[in-house]
């Protein structure tokens, strides 16, 4: 079973490259049982979303 | 007449453009140059733009490309040396969240961030976000911004900055984990945590 620390690395890499089938399986299995890593995953997705909104925020910022 | 008005609008964007460019280039004169070039390029094709917000999106797109060019050009001369200390401090802070067996220690296990979407609507949140970016070690922040703001593929970042793929992955993970931690403390900590 993956450690939580290893899981955080896979969750980050999943944003940059397609994971292998084996990695996806191990990740899914770990997330099933680990609330902490599920929360971490949500936060990684949020970071991406926030970064993509960064310039749009600047649009609104001066109105 | 319209041209003058557009030129005025564009110069109104200047401070924000500068801030955006400085954040990524970490260099005042480089940022000035990128902004200046973007403004000149924008003035060249200005007739096609009616709305203010379309104009702004467009000019930031140009600026983004100018920043990308500057970063590419600079790729070979990036200095890595003195930043390593900051990076290892960030890694130590991350390692401290785990027990010996590399699972979360109970007090630092991540908890969901209530309603993060709502944060995106709040000006104050973006100030925290910006501060969190600014306090990341310079190279860490640069790689993160190349990936997430400028949309580089990881391969290209590695090549541009002469890093190995695994090095790049480690840096991106460090940046994300560092930002997560900073936002957690700086913004989300005050929220009620659902069980």
Describe this structure in words.
Chain A: It comes from Zoogloea oleivorans. Chain A: This is Zf-HC2 domain-containing protein. Chain A: InterPro entries: Znf_put (IPR027383). Chain A: Pfam families: zf-HC2. Chain A: Residues 4-38 form the Putative zinc-finger domain. Chain B: Residues 12-77 form the RNA polymerase sigma-70 region domain. The complex is a heterodimer of chains A (63) and B (195). Chain A has 63 residues and is mainly alpha-helical. Chain A is built from three helices and no strands. Chain A has one domain (4-61). Chain B is an all-alpha fold and 195 residues long. Chain B has two domains: 2-76, RNA polymerase sigma factor, region 2, helix turn helix motif (Rna Polymerase Sigma Factor, Chain: A); 78-188, Arc Repressor Mutant, subunit A (Orthogonal Bundle), CATH 1.10.10. Chain B has helices at residues 2-25, 28-44, 52-74, 84-95, 116-120, 123-134, 138-148, 154-161, 165-188. In chain B, α1 packs parallel to α3 (52-74) and α8 crosses α9 (165-188). The longest helix of chain B is centred in the N-terminal third of the chain and has 24 residues, at 2-25. Chain B is globular, with a radius of gyration of 20 Å. Residues 191-195 of chain B have low confidence and may be disordered. The A-B interface holds A 3-6, 8-9, 12-13, 15-17, 34-40, 42-44, 46-55, 57-59, 61-62 and B 12, 16, 20, 53, 56-57, 60, 95, 98, 101-104, 109-113, 116, 119-120, 123, 126, 129, 144, 147-149, 154, 169, 172-173, 176-177, 179-180, 183-184.
